[in-house]
Design a protein that fits this description.
This protein has about 140 residues and is mainly alpha-helical. It contains five helices and no strands. Keywords: Membrane, Transmembrane, Transmembrane helix.
Length: about 140
């Protein structure tokens, strides 16, 4: 890897780590929604109950995406530092761990960075859905 590739990996790792704030927010929303459902679920109106349930269910997807982002951030950081020497070495390790299917050709770094950004966008959308549904649940919880 050349200096430009290492700089791209370092910047990508920083960007993915920055999504940790959103991950914390999504986890908090899921936890609160689950707690509300567990403690007061029977007394909530059905719309509010459903909205809290959506927050909790989308939280499962959000947790998976947050885990993937954290894993990817670590890998990009290792590539930037030189702890992982090449994309081929990374691919071989991921295949050995069962985290990647055997591929004929290695994807270029630019494509990988694009996919990482798309993963981050999906995570942001999941947290936005949680936030909107949580606000809806709060807004209608006193309706009878």
């Amino acid at each position: 890897m050349n200096d430009n590739d290492r700089a791209l990996c370092a910047a990508t790792a920083g960007l993915l780590r920055a999504s940790g704030t959103l991950a914390t927010w999504g986890l908090a929303l899921s936890f609160i929604a689950g707690l509300v459902l567990a403690l007061t679920g029977r007394s909530l109106p059905s719309v509010s109950w459903a909205a809290y349930a959506v927050v909790a269910l989308v939280g499962l997807l959000e947790r998976y995406l947050a885990l993937r982002l954290r894993l990817d951030a670590g890998m990009y950081e290792a590539l930037a530092r030189g702890a992982i020497g090449s994309l081929a070495a990374l691919d071989g390790t991921l295949e050995g761990l069962g985290l990647r299917r055997t591929a004929d050709a290695s994807r270029p770094l630019a494509d990988r960075v694009l996919l990482a950004r798309q993963l981050m966008q999906r995570h942001s959308i999941a947290v936005a859905v949680q936030t909107v549904m949580f606000a809806l649940a709060l807004a209608v919880q006193d309706w009878r």
